[in-house]
């Protein structure tokens, strides 16, 4: 079940990346590349940081075709997509939570420290979006938007300590996904944000 | 012969990077650093993604001196370089194609899947330019310019399937380089571009 | 003693990163993330380039808490920090020099070529700041500011050749730190800069 949700999440991330590419007037190749970086960048960054080789997409290269297919489909459907704002935000929220769980699992299997498990989940969840924003020449949204990274951390903490408490894995996973997903949706609806740090003076 | 072309390609990439640095008014150190990132970044990214250690320039550190030398020479010759637009574009096209072949070879030697061989070639060919543009705070040119990445993919496909067909390696390599190089030059002359995906509405 | 200075340097880098985040109006999470990337990014880049696993912070995850703590403390103290321009610049200079020595040590222990030892020190010293500037959507300062990278190279050269000359390690380290630190401070006071390469014509 996690695997099915994982592929849905990758597809959703690829489609949001394709829309971002369209806003920058990229060509079809740029759309595919940005989709790959966004959908697979988080897992890639986690594996490189943890020295966990081979990378997921090097081992299963067909996922590259899935991502490029989803990106090209988005081009074809761009007019429809416009009316699908909420379905997209929900799929994106699901993607964030599912990527986090997948990332935690990799770090747990490697026997990493609890802090690193949480960080691995967070890197998997958010780095794809950061790379997308850097390549589009924006300040990454995750630094200032609604509870995005916080959702990932909360999901990871629930999942890790649920497993430590010897509860059943599937149950823990479902609870972590449900709580994280709900938190993100509520934050989107009520525009919950972390407090901002505004500092105007230039040090130099 | 591939090795001679490889060094010519590295030198050419270093020089184009130096000109980009000059447009950003970087200091001499910045020029050298940007040249290293541009000329060696593609191969470095490929090796990190494939877990192929040690990196080329860590194993052969003198290539760093070659790159910095080419960059500093470009500073000295900036007035002449200005008249050399076409030689530079041709050397850059050669670099793209040669880097692609080198990247494919590394992945083939590691026994990777055909898709990964093509991706390894493409990463080697284009990532250096992407990093150069990100560090110069531009949206990477490769996302919207003339058939740049497509040339890399075509070259990689010809090379890989030529080798699979048990043709002689040198012959396959020459054909792949010639076709890729010609495609890039024709695309430059006639301003061939991939279709663009233009999407104006903001999802958020 | 190097270790104590290393922690001071990490804390100082985290605090300067927090101020940069404040200028971009990031939220508290963004402040912590940018602090981690800035303070630990140089060492992480070095270890990934050299294939030196596990990464420092994966092995000692509590350093993440130190960095985030320093970043959050900076938020609380932002008004005071404003008057501390010079202490900060001095700590930042110390950080640059100490990071360089730590990076050289890693490469020396791996038995790398002298050029790679110097590069490893430089990567450790400057990459954190480059990542900070890229994530804040600036052209990295290090490409055009006062002798920043040069200080790192000079420190690395003194340290490496001092050790090669069989002098006592602690003495060599102190001399390298003192010379590098003094050079940076003098460059700040007298606004020493590397010559700039200014090139106005667009190649394309």
TrEMBL record, chains A, B, C:
Membrane topology: Multi-pass membrane protein
Keyword Mitochondrion assigned: no
Alphabetized UniProt keyword annotations: Cell membrane, Membrane, Transmembrane, Transmembrane helix
Domain Glycine transporter: residue ranges: 6-77, 90-161
Listed PANTHER family: INNER MEMBRANE PROTEIN, UPF0126 INNER MEMBRANE PROTEIN YADS-RELATED
Membrane-spanning intervals of the chain: 61-81, 88-108, 114-135, 147-165, 171-190
Family from the record: Belongs to the UPF0126 family.
Organism phylogeny: Bacteria, Pseudomonadati, Pseudomonadota, Alphaproteobacteria, Hyphomicrobiales
Localization of this protein: Cell membrane
Native organism: Devosia neptuniae
Pfam families: Gly_transporter (PF03458)
Entry annotated with the keyword Glycoprotein: no
Protein name in UniProt: Trimeric intracellular cation channel family protein
InterPro entries referenced in this protein's UniProt entry, alphabetically: Gly_transporter (IPR005115)
């Amino acid at each position: 079940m996690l695997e099915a949700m994982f592929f849905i999440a990758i597809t959703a991330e690829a489609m949001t990346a394709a829309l971002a590419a369209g806003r920058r007037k990229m060509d079809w190749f740029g759309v595919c590349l940005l989709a790959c970086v966004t959908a697979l960048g988080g897992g890639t960054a986690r594996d490189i940081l943890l020295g966990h080789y081979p990378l997921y997409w090097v081992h299963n290269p067909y996922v590259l075709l899935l991502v490029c297919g989803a990106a090209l489909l988005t081009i074809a459907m761009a007019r429809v997509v416009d009316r699908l704002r909420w379905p997209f935000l929900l799929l994106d929220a699901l993607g964030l939570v599912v990527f986090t769980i997948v990332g935690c699992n990799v770090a747990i299997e490697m026997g990493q420290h609890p802090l690193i498990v949480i960080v691995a989940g967070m890197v998997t969840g958010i780095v794809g979006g950061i790379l997308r924003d850097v390549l589009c020449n924006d300040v990454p949204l995750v630094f200032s938007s609604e509870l995005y990274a916080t959702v990932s951390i909360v999901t990871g903490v629930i999942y890790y300590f649920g497993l430590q408490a010897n509860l059943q894995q599937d149950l823990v996973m479902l609870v972590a996904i449900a709580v994280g997903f709900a938190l993100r949706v509520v934050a989107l609806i009520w525009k919950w944000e972390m407090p901002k740090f505004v500092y105007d003076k230039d040090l130099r």
